[in-house]
Each structure stands twice: as structure tokens, then as C-alpha cells.
């Protein structure tokens, strides 16, 4: 209750000193329920260093997880520790954390620079220090040109980047980004992905959520999959994919001559089924996606087929989730 | 992020001033701020205009003792005949028959010719005072007993008595000898009384009540709540800052708008009433002390209500609905404080304590206020013809409760209000701290 009279926003206070070797994030048997509905159930997770993607459909519990980490929600059961302390009880760890909220609403009447420098002062920076730091992080996210424009005039991608700058201004060890790529144009998307990868290279712990697999794939290999409040999978995306390869995959090819192409493809060992959904499309089934993708272009070029599109309809989050939730059976 | 040892000011120039500055700028961008401030200004400006109009008008002079009338039609008003010893009821007897004959005085000489000349203190006991300016008691050919109708042994005086009844209240009794201080100047009394009543009423109702409650109602309830609703609270709470600190600094930012506004309106009121009010010089400097207290009391009220309504906003999405019963209660308390200033209920309000500041200051700045009201209620004769202005003045002025002296009342009420503000902050901070934010 007593205000921080030093106003320094120190990462260490008398009540709390960081534990040596405490991981950035530690969740033990964490559940969060609203009445009888569990938004999160029994999550155990420890993260320290590197970029981790949190994948989940809308409503899977990603935002609940982040709100718990940011001390906005109180867990129903279990313990949460950020650098060894409970964020619900003590805001001190936020001196070492940056957070990019999912909410779209921002202070449209401020310029990007005002926004970042004002909130930097809440980290205990003086006015002058805050201005210098704001310039630094706004350059880091590539917004130097527009820092003195009102946020209201920013594009969606610029708004996301200014939020990231706001989160980075205290040079945090742990950065939590809730859906940072949502609604961004491709250029902003690339910039933001580069920023996140760069943070990972700098040795920071980064937690980034998305509901789109391809986005996460381009950023990191380490993923956490949430589904209906439960932790479905934790680990390397490639190892999860390898498990996926053991189950049949579909590849759908749009071509003018599906019958002729099918004749040429049936000879490949890995193909064990072909079907024709309609006159323009051809669907092949395989256990080995990688092998098909390496052989397919050669066959198409060799036999002079005209192909308009190749798609892997199963290569998305929904099918991974389908696989994981069905216990491996498809 | 090198942190070198710095001064207290530089230290505060971090979180606290960042949020205060941010809040001030945010108010500037909101239309509702300007609407609320504009409506407050317009309402008070209208009351100032009405006051100026009243002060510019003339109050009719009344011949309270009827001595300007020539009852016997001999050309001489009753007052002149009484003073010179002829019979005002007999047209055969008048000063024109004197040797040499006396010219009749104009009737206007006998209107408002005997005002109040009281020199009494508010001590308990009986005091003799008053001067018979027009000589219709002292110089008349009355007998000694007719000159001492109040029977206190002093001819042609006014007896003012203060006594304590069993209920502990002090009551007063006034008895004058016939013809003493019986024809006061209504216009002068009314202007002075209405002026004082205006300062007290606009101070208590316009400033402390209206501004004191409505500014926080519209400007403080959303300080935290609006941010929680829009999701922007996430930016502030993602920083190493405790929620009760955010609560405090947001409220300070609100005070940064409201206090200068209240001071501005207070200066405006002091200037208007100072230049327009009745005075010997060009400006009534004496009232400035009361205006100072009015502004101070309003600032304290906006502080307590600001903290309280901010806390109500945290408590519930529709905190303003919770705040309205408070406002209604406080309105009742404000009226109660004018009618029954000693009521215990007032101790359970904010406004009761804030109004105590105004009453205490009025008691210090206008020490003769009670006596002035007493004169007006007495009105020049024992049958209590109220002079114009004395009743509203009586309504709007009251003694600070608890039987305290003015200075003690000032200090105690200030301390109580500060305590109320601190308590509201404590509760608001605790509520905010236990609040889950989506």
C-alpha cells in the first residue's frame, strides 16, 4: 500500500530480492476457473531464455495465461513465479519484464514518442532518461520516421510496433507479446518477427502468442500448445511435426489435368491414395510429406503439367490440434 | 539505466509526475472535461449575475416608526412635533405657533433616521446599548418612566441579553425603550445582509456542495474504471508500480485539473462580491478570508470525493451509480448543516466537515455576524419586524458544530477531511489491488 517513495521502480525492493537461478517464468499446477468453467487447468511450465511460441485457437487460454503472468488475474490453484516472485502480490518483477498487450485500444492522442517515454518513467526513469530510451527502442522497432506523429494516425502495424517499443524500454529480460502479429501488414509482420528473433539472439526470454502456426514457425521452433485451457504439447515444433508425419497427410493440387497428373504420381512409393474432389483438383495422401514435396516439382516439370496451386490443408494448427487431442489417431 | 543519487524532486519526477502529467493531458483530450467545467462555470456565473442585479437594486425605505406622517394635517410631521413638544394628534398644536415660528421639516428627514448603534459583545448577561439618534425619546417631553419602558434604570437605551437555557443553547432577548433605534435604514441593512448571505450561500451550496460533488462525480469515477474498460490499463500495470500508487497518482492528476479550476472560480467570486458588495472603499477586503475558506473547503471536498468516487469506480463498472446515493446523502447533510448545525449525523458526512470550515472562517472574519442577524430579526421594535435579508442570512450562516471555537473547528475539520481522504485512498487502493482485470 505504501507508495514507492524512491520512485525508482527498482527490480529489487526490501520485500523482494530476486532469487539466484530462479527461472524467468515458473508455473506449477496453475488453474484458473470462473465458476465451473476452467480457463486454464493444471498448467506446469518453466521457461528461461530463448523465444517460445504459445499456440492456441481463440479461447484456448493464451490471454488468460498472459494475464496471470502480468498479475492481472489471480490463479485459482497453483503457484506462479516470475523471477521467483508471485506477480499477483508484488509488481517488482515487472522492472525486468516487458509486456505487449493484445488490446487494440491505445492513447491515440499521444505521439509514439510521448507514449513510450511517459510509460518509461513508470520504470523509474527520469524525464530525460526516458526520452533517450524512447528514441533507442523506437529506432529498434523501426519507427524513427513517425515518432512525433499521433498514434491515432498510425497503421495497425505501427501501433503494434509502438506497443513493442513500450515493452522494451526498460531493457527487459523477459518479454511477453500477446498476438503481436495480429492484423499487421506483411512489412510490419516481417519487422516484428525480426525484432522478436533479435531479442532471442540477445539472450532474452521471449514469450509470443499466436493462433497461426506459420507465424510462430517463422519466429521460433520452441512452442507451447494450449487447447481448451490445457497444455497439449511443449517442445520443438519439428519433433511435433515428425510425429505428425507418421499420420496420413493430404496434399491438394489444383491443375487443369488432374487425371494425367495422378497417373504420374501413383508411381511414387510414399503416395498411398489419390482422390479427385472435383474436376480441377487432385488430392494425394501420404505418410511422408517431406518426400512428396521434394519429388513433386520434378514430376510436374518433367511431364509438363500445368499446376495452379499446391496446398497442404493439414499443415495448420487445427490439424495439429486435431492430431494431438485425438491421442495420435486421425 | 544508470541511477545516480538525486534530489527528492528528481525522484518524484519519475512515476508520480509521469502519471499526473499523463492524466492532465488525458483530461485535456476528453470532451466531457470541458463540458463539466463549462457547465460549472456557467452555473456559478449566472448566480453571480443575479447577485449583481440584486445589489444594483434599491430596497424601499420604510418609516418603521411612522413619524414622517403628519397625522393632524398641520403641516408638521409627527417626529418634528414630538421632538419640539407639540401634540402630533392636534392641528391646533404645532411648532408654527412658536415665537419665532419653526418651519416644518421635510417628511424624508424622519425616514431611516434612527439606525442601530449597538456596541455589545456576545457574552452572557445583560448589556445596555443604543443611541436615540432622532431624539424622539431623549429630547421628547416624556416622563422618566416613559423614557425607560424596558425598566432597566437607563433612559432611552436598548437592552440586549444573552442567556443559556437548560438545553445548553444560548438565546437572546432584546428590549428597547420606546423610540430608540427604531427606524433603521432598510436599504443599507438589506444590501449588507444579502451580500453576506450571498457569499455564504454560494460558498456553501455553489462551491462546496455543487462543485465539491459534481466535479468528482463526473471526473473521478472513471479515473481507473475507464482505463480498465478500454484495456489501456494494461500499459500502466505492466510496469513495476503498485496499484495503490497508480490510484493515488491518477487522483492527483484529477486534482491538478480541479483545484486550479476551483481557485479560479473562487478568485472570480471574490472579485465580483468584493467590487459589487456594499463597502466604504472601492473593494471589500474583509470578505477575502471567507472566500479563502470557501476555496479551501471546496478543495478538501473535491479531494475526499475524488478518492471516494475513484474507489467506487474501481469497485463496480457502474461506479457512478454508487456515487449518486452519496451525492444525495451529502445534499441532505448540507441542508441539515444549515438548519441543525449541531446534528451528530453531520459527523458522518464529508460536506458537514467541509461546511464547518466555511462557518468557522465566517465566524473569524465577521465576528459581529450573529449580532447583525439579531438586529435584523429584531428590526427596530419588539414586535420583530424582520428586516429584509436577515432571514436568508440567518439560514445560511451557522455556528461551527461541536461547540468548538473557530480556530479549533478549522483545524479539526481539516484533519478529519484529510483522514477521510486517506481512508478512501486506502480502500480504493485495496479494492484495486484485489481486482482482476481482463
Task: Walk me through what this model shows.
Chain A has 2 domains: 25-239, P-loop containing nucleotide triphosphate hydrolases (Rossmann fold, 3-Layer(aba) Sandwich); 246-325, Alpha-Beta Plaits, CATH 3.30.70. Chain A contains 10 helices and 13 strands. Chain A has helices at 62-69, 112-120, 127-140, 156-168, 186-201, 213-219, 237-245, 258-265, 289-302, 317-325; strands at residues 25-34, 37-47, 50-55, 77-82, 97-100, 174-177, 205-210, 222-227, 230-236, 249-255, 271-275, 281-286, 307-311. In chain A, a hairpin with a 2-residue loop joins strand 8 (222-227) and strand 9 (230-236). In chain A, helix 2 (112-120) runs parallel beside helix 4, helix 3 packs across helix 4 and helix 4 packs parallel to helix 5 (186-201). The mean pLDDT of chain A is 84. The longest helix of chain B is centred in the middle third of the chain and has 34 residues, at 186-219. Mean pLDDT of chain B is 86; it is low at 1-5. Chain B has 14 helices and 3 strands. Chain B is mostly helical and 438 residues long. Chain B has a 3-stranded antiparallel β-sheet with strand order 1-2-3, with no helix packed on it. The A-B interface holds A 1, 3-11, 67, 70-74, 91-95, 97-99, 101, 103-107, 109-110, 118-119, 121-127, 129-130, 133, 166-167, 170-171 and B 1, 3, 6, 10-19, 21-22, 25-26, 29, 230-232, 234-245, 248, 426, 429-430, 433, 436-438.
Oligomer: heterodimer
The shape of chain B is elongated
Radius of gyration of chain B: 29 Å
Biggest sheet of chain B, strands in spatial order? 1-2-3
| First-to-last CA distance of chain B | 31 Å
The CATH level-2 architecture of the largest domain in chain A is identified as 3-Layer(aba) Sandwich
CA-to-CA gap between the ends of chain A? 55 Å
Number of strands of chain B: 3
Task: Give the total of beta strands of chain A.
Answer: 13
Q: Please report which band the strand proportion of chain B falls in: under 5%, 5-15%, 15-25%, 25-35%, 35-45% or over 45%.
A: under 5%
Overall structural class of chain A, as computed from helix and strand content, comes to alpha/beta
Amino acid at each position: 500500500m505504501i507508495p514507492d517513495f524512491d520512485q525508482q521502480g527498482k527490480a529489487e525492493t526490501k520485500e523482494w530480492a530476486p532469487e539466484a537461478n530462479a527461472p524467468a517464468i515458473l508455473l506449477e499446477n496453475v488453474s484458473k476457473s470462473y465458476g465451473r468453467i476452467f480457463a486454464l487447468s493444471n498448467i506446469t511450465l518453466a521457461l528461461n531464455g530463448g523465444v517460445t511460441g504459445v499456440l492456441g485457437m481463440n479461447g484456448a487460454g493464451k490471454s488468460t495465461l498472459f494475464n496471470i503472468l502480468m498479475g492481472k488475474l489471480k490463479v485459482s490453484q497453483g503457484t506462479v513465479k516470475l523471477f521467483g516472485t508471485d506477480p499477483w502480490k508484488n509488481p517488482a518483477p515487472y522492472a525486468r519484464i516487458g509486456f505487449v498487450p493484445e488490446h487494440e485500444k491505445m492513447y491515440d492522442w499521444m505521439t509514439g514518442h510521448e507514449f513510450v517515454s511517459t510509460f518509461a518513467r513508470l520504470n523509474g526513469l527520469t524525464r530525460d532518461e526516458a526520452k533517450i530510451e524512447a528514441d533507442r527502442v523506437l529506432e529498434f522497432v523501426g519507427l524513427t520516421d513517425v515518432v512525433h506523429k499521433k498514434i491515432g494516425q498510425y497503421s495497425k502495424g505501427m501501433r503494434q510496433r509502438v506497443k513493442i517499443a513500450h515493452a522494451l524500454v526498460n531493457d527487459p529480460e523477459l518479454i511477453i507479446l500477446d498476438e503481436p502479429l495480429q492484423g499487421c501488414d506483411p512489412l510490419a509482420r516481417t519487422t516484428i518477427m525480426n525484432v522478436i528473433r533479435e531479442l532471442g539472439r540477445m539472450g532474452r526470454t521471449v514469450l509470443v502468442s499466436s493462433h497461426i502456426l506459420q507465424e510462430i514457425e517463422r519466429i521460433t521452433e520452441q512452442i507451447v500448445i494450449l487447447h481448451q485451457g490445457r497444455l497439449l504439447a511443449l517442445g520443438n515444433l519439428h519433433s511435433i511435426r515428425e510425429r505428425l508425419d507418421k499420420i496420413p497427410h493430404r496434399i491438394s493440387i489444383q491443375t487443369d489435368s488432374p487425371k494425367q497428373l495422378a497417373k504420374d504420381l501413383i508411381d511414387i512409393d510414399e503416395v498411398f491414395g489419390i482422390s479427385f474432389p472435383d474436376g480441377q483438383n487432385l488430392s494425394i495422401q501420404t505418410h511422408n510429406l517431406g518426400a512428396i514435396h521434394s519429388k513433386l516439382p520434378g514430376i510436374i516439370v518433367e511431364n509438363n503439367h500445368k499446376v495452379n496451386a499446391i496446398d497442404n490443408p493439414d499443415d495448420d494448427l487445427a490439424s495439429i490440434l486435431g492430431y494431438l487431442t485425438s491421442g495420435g489417431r486421425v | 539505466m544508470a541511477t545516480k543519487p538525486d534530489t527528492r524532486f528528481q525522484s518524484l519526477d519519475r512515476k508520480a509526475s509521469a502519471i499526473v502529467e499523463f492524466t492532465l493531458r488525458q483530461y485535456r483530450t476528453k470532451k466531457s472535461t470541458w463540458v463539466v467545467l463549462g457547465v460549472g462555470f456557467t452555473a456559478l456565473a449566472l448566480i453571480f449575475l443575479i447577485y449583481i442585479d440584486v445589489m444594483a437594486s434599491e430596497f424601499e425605505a420604510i418609516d418603521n416608526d411612522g413619524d414622517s406622517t403628519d397625522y393632524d394635517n398641520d403641516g408638521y410631521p409627527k417626529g418634528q412635533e414630538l421632538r419640539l413638544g407639540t401634540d402630533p394628534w392636534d392641528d391646533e398644536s404645532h411648532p408654527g405657533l412658536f415665537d419665532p415660528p419653526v418651519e416644518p421639516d421635510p417628511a424624508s428627514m424622519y425616514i431611516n433616521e434612527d439606525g442601530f448603534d449597538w456596541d455589545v459583545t456576545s457574552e452572557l448577561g445583560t448589556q445596555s446599548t443604543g443611541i436615540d439618534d432622532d431624539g424622539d425619546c431623549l429630547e421628547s417631553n416624556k416622563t422618566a418612566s416613559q423614557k425607560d419602558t424596558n425598566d432597566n434604570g437607563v433612559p432611552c437605551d436598548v437592552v440586549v441579553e444573552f442567556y443559556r437555557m437548560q438545553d445548553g443553547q444560548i438565546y437572546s432577548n432584546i428590549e428597547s425603550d420606546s423610540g430608540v433605534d427604531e427606524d433603521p435604514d432598510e436599504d443599507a441593512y438589506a444590501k449588507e445582509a444579502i451580500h453576506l448571505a450571498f457569499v455564504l450561500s454560494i460558498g456553501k451550496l455553489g462551491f462546496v456542495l455543487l462543485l465539491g460533488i459534481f466535479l468528482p462525480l463526473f471526473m473521478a469515477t472513471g479515473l481507473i474504471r475507464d482505463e480498465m474498460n478500454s484495456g489501456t490499463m494494461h500499459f500502466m500495470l505492466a510496469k513495476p508500480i503498485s496499484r495503490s500508487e497508480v490510484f493515488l497518482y491518477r487522483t492527483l492528476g484529477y486534482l491538478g485539473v480541479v483545484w486550479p479550476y476551483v481557485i479560479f472560480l473562487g478568485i472570480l467570486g471574490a472579485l465580483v462580491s468584493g467590487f459589487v458588495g456594499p463597502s466604504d472603499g472601492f473593494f471589500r477586503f474583509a470578505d477575502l478570508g471567507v472566500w479563502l475558506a470557501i476555496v479551501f473547503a471546496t478543495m478538501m471536498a473535491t479531494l475526499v470525493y475524488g478518492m471516494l468516487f475513484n474507489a467506487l469506480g474501481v469497485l463496480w463498472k457502474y461506479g457512478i451509480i454508487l456515487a449518486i446515493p452519496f451525492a444525495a446523502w451529502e445534499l441532505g447533510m448540507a441542508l441539515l448543516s444549515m438548519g441543525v448545525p449541531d446534528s451528530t449525523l453531520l459527523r458522518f458526512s464529508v460536506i458537514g466537515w467541509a461546511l464547518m470550515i466555511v462557518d468557522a472562517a465566517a465566524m473569524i472574519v465577521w465576528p459581529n455576524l450573529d449580532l447583525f442577524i439579531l438586529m435584523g430579526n429584531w428590526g427596530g421594535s419588539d414586535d420583530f419586524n424582520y428586516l429584509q435579508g436577515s432571514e436568508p442570512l440567518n439560514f445560511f450562516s451557522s455556528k461551527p458544530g461541536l461547540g468548538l471555537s473557530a480556530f479549533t473547528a478549522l483545524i479539526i475539520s481539516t484533519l478529519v477531511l484529510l483522514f477521510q481522504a486517506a481512508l478512501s485512498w486506502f480502500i480504493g487502493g485495496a479494492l484495486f489491488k484485489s481486482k482482476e482485470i481482463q
